[in-house]
Amino acid sequence: MNPLLTAVPAGNDLAPPAPESGIDAADWQAVEDKVGRDGFAVLPALLTPAQCAEIAAYFAEEARFRSRIVMERYAFGRGEYKYFRYPLPPLVARLREALYPRLAPVANRWHGLLRLDGRFPATHAEFRAICHAAGQQRPTPLLLRYQPGDYCCLHQDLYGEHVFPFQVIFLLDEPGRDFGGGELLLTQSNPRHAGRAEVVPLRQGDAVVLAVNYHPAASARGCYRANVRHGVSRLHWGRRHALGIIFHDAK
Length: 251
What we know:
The protein is α+β, with helices and mostly antiparallel strands. The protein contains five helices and 15 strands. The chain has one domain: q2cbj1_9rhob like domain (Jelly Rolls). It is globular.
């Protein structure tokens, strides 16, 4: 059993489990420890295959999105993604609202360790109001689609003055069945050690909590920032969809 998730008793077989139940059941101390050490932590099977299919199908519904980005035009890689518009689809909104209060206390502890000003409020509604007051009013949850030959360059998702230090990515298709290649990649670098890269193992319905730009790394004099970037390796065959939950909005 994955140590980051506690088993949840089976409920009504006819009703899909609410994603909040898996979020509530996760071992968030283990998540905090792993993200602080490695820059990421996997939460297995937060979404059912049916929920994954529902979200992936949104890609064809243009009315749900505020913009479409073709990565090759901006030298981001190859592939495309779309930013949702407000109001978000109910399932996407629920995931954002349920994950934020679990991560906000960790974000505040990180700011304390790094001696950074500012603390994050308890609810996402409060944090969204702060973003909007600063002119960051465009929603940032996004849906990505990769086809053969597509990839995403290493990057950080920063959209303005107010940056929440975590994001969550959900894999919506099954590796080896729906696509080949297309691994999620994570790199870490800092002035004290040589950089390293890691493949993040994901299955359909899994979520990964990522550090958006850096995480605190311990030293003899306290903590310093270890920079984190993520991307996606080249897809060899099939089609890969992913949902990105970013908590700060964009200007």
